[in-house]
Amino acid sequence: MSVTYRFSLAAALLITWCGATGRSLRFSLRQHLFIALQGALLFGLNYVGVYWAEEYAPSGLVAVLFSTIVFMNPVGARLAFGTVLSARSFVAATMGVAGVALMFLPELTAARRGGDAARGIIIGFVATAIACGGNITAARNQRAGIEVFPGIAWGMAYGALIAAIAATLRGAVWVFDSRFAYVVSLAYLAIFGSIVAFGAYLTLLKQVGPGPAAYVGVAVPVVALTLSTLFEGYRWTWTAALGVVLAVCGNWFALRATRPAVTLNTVARSP
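The structure corresponding to this sequence follows.
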């Protein structure tokens, strides 16, 4: 339900902003179908899958699973756009995933084999694959001339609809928590966690392509642990510190390996 509220609010704010700044929100039926696909994958089913996985597996394990998108995105870009796969990128991806695994090593060690944890792993992998599909669809839409923010506005509306259907099918009783803390957190996620974050991410995806952009999934746990240190008293271990070093080095290595020949704009000009 919160995913529905979050993306509904974000979509409403973005649609209002696009209208006020003269950005066209008019698309053909074909364009709407692809925007709906992007929204369903990136803002709907992806989030439902991650939250569902965390019902069965520790959040640290799900974070490690989601970081494997650094492998999925380059493969998806190769299949969809013919982007060259470089050994360097896969080395960087390995460093990134290994770094995230070290950051959450205690949770991974505590996770039980089989049972609920196994179910969470399967759902987490499926959610990651769905997110990869959303990334590739977003890249396709950008190649087709759909601007980032109008596309996000409609995409989030479609994603909210998908999340609402999923919640209803799972028997959710529709209520709204009107407490100040919930409302403020919802507004934060709608504005900064959705509009700003996805606006920046999809702009990055347009500039460097789906492969390098996926390293956001490796960088997020680093930022999360930093914030946890500041506000939650997180105590660092040598394995977590090594994980951060590996993740940062993997990001640097991947972005350093990025060449104009494999960016989205160059691919768009290819025959």
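The chain has one domain: 2-269.
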